[in-house]
Amino acid sequence: MTQAIDTTIYAAVSEAIQGEAQRILSAGEVTAIVGYATARRKGSAQPIVITNADDAQKLIFTPACVNNLAVYLTKAKKEIPKQGKIGIVVKGCDLKALAGLMGESQLKREQLYLIGVPCAGVLASTIQPDTQLTADTIAPKCTECDAHLPQGCDFVPAQTPVTPELEKKYAAEIARLEALTPKERWAYWKEQFSKCIKCYACRQVCPFCFCEQCLCDRNKPQMVDTTPRPAGNTAWHIVRAMHLAGRCAGCAECERVCPMDIPLNLLNRKMAKELKELYDYEAGFQVNENGPLNSYTEKDDQSFIK
Amino acid sequence: MSRIGVFICHCGENISRTVDVERVAAQVAKLPGVAFSTDYKYMCSDPGQNLLKKTIQEQKLSHIVVAACSPRMHEKTFRKAVEAAGLNPFLCEMANIREHCSWVHEDKQEATLKAIEIVGMMVERVKKNRVLPTITVPVTKRALIIGGGIAGIQAALDIADCGHEVILVEREPSIGGHMAQLSETFPTLDCSQCIMTPKMVDVINHPKIKLYSYSEIELVEGYIGNFQVTIRRKARSVIEDKCTGCGVCMEKCPVKKIPNKFDCNLGMRPAIYVPFPQAVPNTPVIDRENCIKFKTGKCGLCQKVCGPGAVDYEQEDTLIVEAVGAIVVATGFDLYNITEKPKGSPIKGYGEFGHGKIPDVIDGMTFERLASASGPTGGKILRPSDGKEPKQIVFIQCIGSRAREKGISYCSKVCCMYTAKHTMLYHHKVHDGQAYVFFMDARTPGKSYDEFWRRSIEEEEAVYIRGMVSRLYQKGDKIVVMGSDIAVGVQVEIEADMVVLATAVQPQKGAELLAQKLGISYDKYNFYSEAHAKLRPVECATAGIYLAGACQGPKDIPETVSQASAAAAKVMTLLSKDKLEREPIVARVKESTCVGCFACKKVCAYGAVEEKEIRDRQGNLIKVVAYVNPGVCGGCGTCQATCPSKSVELDGYTDEQIVAMIEAL
C-alpha cells in the first residue's frame, strides 16, 4: 500500500482563492487574475485568465493544477494585458520563478498581486488527473519541495498542508548518474538527447526563456543547428542547461511538457547542485539582482582552476 | 564584392625562417574575395607601408589583411597606413603568423600550413568588418593628483605650470609626505626640508592648483577625459579661510602629550596641531579622539583664544565633486613594521627581533627624525629609552625586503643608500661613536651613488659586515646583536646601544581600496601596476590614470621626481587636446531583441550600460532595453558573452566575424 498524501485542504484553499479573487477584482485592485480552472476531462485543470469578478468562482486548486503560471507574465509569451496590476495564483515552486523574473528586471513586485497556495503536492505528468495523490503518483519535484507554503505573498489561505517526508527522486537519480564513469554518463545523455525532436516545448513553457528572439532561432550566424540531429540537439540542451544555471528553481515544467520524456529537470537540478556547492547559491523566494554567474566576489570558490 | 589585399611579412627572418611566405601568398591568392596577395621583407618599414598604400590605390582594394606579428605590436601602424590610403582603418586586420606560428613551431611544412589557415581565417573575418567611425569624446582640461608627497607636488607643479588646473588631494593635514620627514638626502646630503618646503609653498601659492588637504577620495566615476571624482573633506574643526596660522590655539591647548606621528611618535603635539612647523597649509586640525572638548564637552579653550574665530567644533565631513580629465596616483609608501605580523597578509613577523618590544630598536624613518634639526631631539642622536647618546650603533639592512621566507621577495631599493647616509649622519654627530652595518649586498647603481657608499666606509668609518642578523635581545641597557660575517665565516656578536632597521618599503595602507575605486590593477604586494614595464611605465592600463612615485614600487627621490614629471607630461599630452579620439571597439545593443534583463549591466566593469526606454509615437512605454554609452565602454566584450539573447555585439568582434573565422578552419 503506497503512502497517501492528504489533499483535503485543497477544497478550502480553492474557496479562499475564490473569495479573495472576487474581492480584489470587484475592488478594482487588479485588472486580471491568472489561476486554474476545471478542464474538460474529469478531475483535470487548466490555466485561466479572469477579468470579471463573477468568474472568480471558476478558480480552483486541485492536485491537477500542475502548470507554472508565471510563464504567462513573461514578455516572450505576451498572454496577459500589459497595463495594470495582475493577480496570480502561485504554488511555492512557481513563486520562485516569479522572484527570479523580478531579479532579472522582467517583472515588478508592485505590479503583481500574489495569491499563494498552501500546497502538499501535485500529480506527476504521467498520472491520470483524477487519481489520488500518493507517494507514487506525486510529481517528482514535489518529493524535494521546500516551499509548501509560499512566503511574501499578498494573500495565502489559512490552511496548512500536511507534508510527509518522501524519497527524493532527483537526488537519487543524480547520485546514480554521478556514480557512473564519464563515458557511461555521456552515453546516457547522448541517448536522452537523441530522442529530442526540437519541438521547443521546453523553451515555450519555461518562465526563464523570456527572450523575444531565442538565440537558437538566429541564422546570422547560426548558433545552434535547428534540425533534430545529434549535434544540434546536444547543443540546444547544453545551452538550455547553462542559461538556466543559477536561475531555474525547479518547477519542472520543461520535463512535464516534453513529448519525448527527456529528463530535463534532472539536468537543471544537477546544475543547481553545482551552483549550491560552488557559490552557496540557491534560487528561492528572495529577489536577487546579482545571480552567482554574473557577479564576482573574492570569496568565490576557485578550486576548479587547476 | 570585396577586393581583399593580403600582405605577408617576412619579419626579417623571424617568420620566413619557419614559414614559406611565398607559398602562403600563393595559396591565399586563391581564396574567394582575395584580389591581391604578396610577401615582403619588412611590412612595418617605410617601403613596406608604402607598398601597402600604393597597392590599395592601384588595385582598388576594399579590405586588408596584414599577416605579420601580433596586433599588439603593429595593428596601429598598419591601420594608420590604410587610413592614409583612403580606407577606413577598421577594414584592416592582422593575422598573427609570428607569435602564434613561426616562433612556436620548428617544422616548416607544418608551420606553413598553419600560417595559411591563420591568414584564411582573417580573410573570412575581414569580409565581415564594417566601417567604424572614430569616436570622439570631450576632454575636461583639469587634472587630479592623489597624494601630496614629493611625487604629487612635482606632478601638480608641472601640470599647473603648463596652464592646466590641478586638484591636489592629500589625506594628511599637510602636504609634504615622507620627504618632509627626512633629515638629509643622498647622495648630496642637502637638507630635505630646505629643498622641499619651497615646493610646498609653490603649491599653495599657485593660482592653478586647488589643494584639498585632510581629504580623501570617496568615489571615482567616468572615464578618460571625463572623470567625476567625489572627494571627502574630513572635518578639520578649523575653518581654513578664516585661520591665519598664528598658532595661539596650539600654545593654549591643555592636552600636550600626544605622540606626533610625523615625528614617528617620539615628539609630542597638542590636540589641535599642525604636524610640523612648515606645514602647508599652515592650518591646524583638531584631533577629535584626544581633544577634551570632543571627549567631555568641556574646555573649548582654542575657540576662545582664536582671534579670527576659525575654530568650529560643529564642522562635519563634506563631499565635493570635481570634474577632471586625467588622474595621477601618487600615494607613496609606508614602512614595514616589525612590531606585529600584518593581519591577513602572507608576511611573517620578526619574532627573533623581539617584535618591536626593545625600545632602542628603531626603523630608518625614526632615525631620520632623530637626525633632523627640526626633529624631537633637535638633531641630536639620542636613544628613545633613556635619551643617552649611543656609542655603538648597528644598522641592519633588508628587514622584510628580499626575504622570501618572510613574505616579501622584492628589493626596497632605497635602504642601501639611506643606511650609508645614516652612518655618515651618525659619524658627523657622534664623533666617538662606531657604526656597524649588516648587509646582504650593497646595491648602489645611480649617479654618484657608489661613490657615496664607498665614502661611508672609507671616510666615515662605518664597518660593513656581510651577513644577516639572527637575533636581537636586551641585556642590561645594551642590545645584543647576534649575526654572522659570511665573508670571514664567523659568528659576530655586538653589544649595541641602538639598532636601526632598514625596514621594507610597502604601499600605503588601503592602497588596494583606492585601486578598486579607481579601477586600476595592483600586484600581490598592492603596488600599483603600470601598463607596460618598459614602454608605458607611468601609465595605468586604465586609460587616463597615471602613476608617480613609490605607490608603483620602491623609489628614491630623484627617480620619484623624474616619474612625476613623466606622468605630468603624459597628462599634459592628454589635456592639450580638445577632443579625444578613441578606438570605436565598443559594444552595441540590438534593441529589437533585447529583453531588458540587464545581465550586461550587472557584469559591466566600466559602468557603461544604461537603461533606455523605448516609446511609441504617443509616448507609451513599449519596453526598457540596455544602452551602451560608447564613451564609457571599454570594449572588453563581457556583456556580449553574458547576453542570453545575443543582443549585444562588440564592434570589430561580432559573432558573425568570429563564426566566420571558425568556419574558415
CATH superfamily of the largest domain in chain B: FAD/NAD(P)-binding domain
Q: Overall mean pLDDT score of chain A?
A: 91
Supply the CATH class of the largest domain in chain B.
Answer: Alpha Beta
Q: Regarding quaternary structure, how should these chains be classified?
A: heterodimer
Number of helices of chain A: 8
For the record, the CATH architecture of the largest domain in chain B stands as: 3-Layer(bba) Sandwich
Largest sheet of chain B: 5 strands, parallel
Radius of gyration of chain A equals 20 Å
What portion of the residues of chain A fall into strands of 2 or more residues? Answer: 5-15%
Strand count of chain A: 4
| Portion in beta strands of chain B | 15-25%
H-E string of chain A = HEEEHEHHHHHH
The 3D shape of chain B can be described as: globular
E-strand count of chain B? 34
Low-confidence stretches of chain B: none
Description of the structure:
The complex is a heterodimer of chains A (306) and B (665). With 306 residues, chain A is an alpha/beta fold. Chain A has helices spanning 9-26, 92-103, 169-178, 182-194, 201-205, 230-244, 253-257, 264-279; strands spanning 32-38, 45-50, 86-90, 112-116. Chain A has eight helices and four strands, in the order αβββαβαααααα. In chain A, helix 3 (169-178) packs across helix 8 and helix 6 (230-244) crosses helix 8 (264-279). Chain A has a four-stranded mixed sheet. Chain B has four domains: 4-127, 3-Layer(aba) Sandwich (Rossmann fold); 142-332 and 517-575, FAD/NAD(P)-binding domain (3-Layer(bba) Sandwich); 334-506, 3-Layer(bba) Sandwich (FAD/NAD(P)-binding domain), CATH 3.50.50; 587-664, Alpha-Beta Plaits (2-Layer Sandwich). By secondary structure, chain B is of the alpha/beta class. In chain B, helix 2 (46-58) crosses helix 3 (71-84) and helix 5 crosses helix 6 (192-205). Chain B is globular. Chain B is built from 17 helices and 34 strands. In chain B, the strands form twelve sheets. A five-stranded parallel sheet of chain B has the order 10-7-6-18-29. A five-stranded parallel sheet of chain B has the order 20-27-21-22-23. A four-stranded parallel sheet of chain B has the order 2-1-3-4, sandwiched between helices. Chain A binds chain B through residues 75-76, 104-106, 210-215, 218, 220-223, 243, 289-291, 294-295, and chain B through 592-593, 595-599, 602-603, 623-624, 642, 644-646, 655-656, 659-660.
